[in-house]
Amino acid sequence: MKRKPLEKVAILFFVPLVLFFLQACSGKQHHDKLERSISRSAHQYLGVPYVSGGRSPSKGFDCSGLVWYIFNQHGIELPPTSRQQARIGAKVKRGELRPGDLLFFGSGTRVSHVGVYVGNGVMIHAPGRGKKVTKAELDKKYYKDHFVVAKRVI
Fold first, then answer.
1. Taking a C-beta distance cutoff of 8 angstroms, is the pair 99, 38 a contact?
2. How many domains does the chain have?
3. Distance CA 87, CA 48 (A)
4. Which helix (H) or strand (E) holds 34?
């Protein structure tokens, strides 16, 4: 059976288009699943003590060690320090944050702290000596005043 020219155009145009959208939807589902998984991982470590240079739940975490550990569990290798972590990924506007985004704080443009955004205006981070991994609301004055940049690495 001989195909009409219009049928050939439809096949050549619409089949690849449908395949493209199916692949895009599958990629978005994977990305959404990874965001949720990173957020769940961050929640697992609430209450773990802060330890300078710490990179494990059994010994404790500092801020960059917590972020490094969470992402490493998901096969995403990050540099070890908050300053190095702030140099990678794509910048994200505060109004466009998604779970799994990294939030960097400091003075001016100098980064000294990092946390993981988990949604609803909240991050999980290891705040400092004598404290434990905790949640923090980003609309608190301290975090507004010391925000440097947000980055997306997934």
1. yes
2. 1
3. 27
4. helix 5-44
Cβ contact 112:106 at 8 Å: yes
Host domain of residue 116: 5-152
pTM score of the predicted model: 0.81
Encoding tokens for residue 17?
Answer: 């288009």
Taking residues 18-44, what's their average pLDDT? Answer: 72
What pLDDT sits at residue 18?
A: 46
* Residue in the structure block whose two tokens are 């980055």: 151
Residue 50 CA to residue 57 CA, distance in Å, equals 10
As a whole number of Å, the CA-based R_g of the chain is 21
Q: What are the pLDDT digits (tens) for 86-111?
A: 999 999 999 999 999 999 999 998 99
CATH number of the domain enclosing 96? 3.90.1720.10
